[in-house]
Q: What sequence folds into this?
């Protein structure tokens, strides 16, 4: 596996690979890799000639007071894991390389970004779309892989790819979970053992929602109230949002039908965690 | 010359050309071609294997109350002119193709855009950067050609290309002028013969500025006042702005030194015209 730290060098390497007729699979990450990331790299390996994993803790997607400084970083550990998962190139640019003096161009998705996490983190998705477009232009992937844990991010990236006529195909792979159901996340490393036990309430609340829907419940209000009860059972939990939205628009829905997303963000102590569940329900009324 | 009206078809055509090792020169226009556009196409022809000229009157770069509806359009005349200038492909997408239902992703340059025309036309450059990035992703040019008449646009596109790691090289070619000095523009077609005579004051004011600088004048205030006098001599002229700015930042400067841009926008009747002059002056103080 090759380590590349410079964006021009990465772009040249990708151009050469493409001229040689190779396909490139790309897994953009902020590092501190876990099995969720590895599942993306393995899929990239299975489907492409060259696999590029990037590690870049992107300052523009953190708001003031968020955890940019303390976000976990461990390049040595990440290198070993990325190589084992089949990465051919590990791309780790510096902040100065990605955002040179006088940087002033941003990509902004203006509809899907105004819901869910966009409400609590108003500049977050602008940072995400900007850095992802830059990374696409540097790495030149045929396919890029994202995790379903960040469901809103995945929908926004797909929208950007369509709107800006990008040549890359976006693949979204299922959430990978710990045995107890907690969705894998680099931010889980912030949790104490006790908090980690409490953090399983996110998944439990979603499972309860699933059961209620299976049993015929279609009123989001009633399901939400049950989910809040479950989350309230964890002493350090504080709900940021629990939302039932259309998967096309991310707008709130009252009565469940069609393609919906149940998404939630919950603080466990100081740590903000997200999780979600997609449901395909009959779209018509009887 | 091939006419392409669909963005997927254009992208496939460009991909095939690139796979065959051809270089692509691209001239994005809003049509109603004039010799300024043709000088760009001729340069593209001289430097590339394949020349693509696009014609797209881009709604997102027009503000409310601006001339989107009445902007001059004449595809037949443009086809003949583009072919004569060496275009191999004329790409004329529809608004529905470029901005499909639910379109919500924009590219925004946030510094250079806040000066000069950006003040009178607050959403203009967001429309420009968005459509130009889309066109680049569809046409996949090695080199794209822009006219110096839109000096601010050229600087913003260059900034975007750097900031977003685009592979395209941006070439900016000199203003082409009518015999009497009026900068060529599709919007000149709005002018009556009498207004066209009056419109030469833009160039005359710039020439006077040049003479004053040559004679040692370095106070923008004094030059500006002379330029206003010249423009006021045209009965239907109304100044939108006359600005002396740094070419790096587009910020106003008082004392002229270094790389500067003298830019102006003037209404002649209802028609808003722009023109500019670049100067390279010694940067130090004595």
A:
């Amino acid at each position: 596996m090759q380590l590349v730290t410079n964006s021009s060098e990465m772009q040249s390497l990708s151009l050469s690979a493409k001229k040689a007729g190779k396909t490139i699979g790309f897994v953009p990450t902020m590092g501190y890799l876990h099995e969720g990331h590895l599942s993306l790299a393995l899929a990239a390996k299975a489907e492409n000639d060259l696999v590029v994993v990037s590690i870049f803790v992107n300052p523009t997607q953190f708001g003031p007071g968020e955890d940019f400084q303390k976000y976990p970083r461990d390049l040595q550990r990440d290198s070993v894991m990325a190589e084992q998962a089949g990465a051919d190139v590990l791309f780790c640019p510096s902040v100065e390389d990605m955002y040179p003096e006088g940087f002033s161009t941003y990509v902004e998705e203006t509809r899907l970004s105004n819901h869910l996490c966009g409400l609590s983190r108003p500049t977050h998705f602008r940072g995400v779309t900007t850095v992802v477009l830059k990374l696409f232009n540097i790495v030149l992937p045929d396919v890029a892989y994202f995790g379903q844990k960040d469901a809103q991010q995945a929908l926004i990236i797909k929208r950007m790819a369509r709107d800006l006529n990008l040549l890359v195909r976006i693949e979204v792979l299922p959430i990978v979970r710990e045995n107890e159901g907690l969705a894998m996340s680099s931010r889980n490393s912030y949790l104490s053992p006790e908090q980690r036990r409490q953090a399983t309430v996110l998944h439990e609340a979603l499972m309860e929602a699933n059961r209620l829907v299976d049993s015929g419940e279609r009123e989001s209000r009633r399901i939400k109230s049950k989910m809040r009860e479950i989350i309230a059972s964890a002493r350090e939990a504080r709900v940021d949002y629990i939302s039932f939205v259309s998967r096309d628009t991310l707008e709130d829905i009252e009565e469940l039908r069609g393609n919906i997303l149940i998404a939630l963000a919950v603080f466990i102590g100081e740590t903000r965690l997200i999780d979600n569940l997609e449901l395909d329900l009959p779209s018509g009324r009887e």
About this structure: The two ends of chain B are 57 Å apart (CA to CA). The domain at 2-173 of chain B is CATH 3.40.50.620 (Rossmann fold).
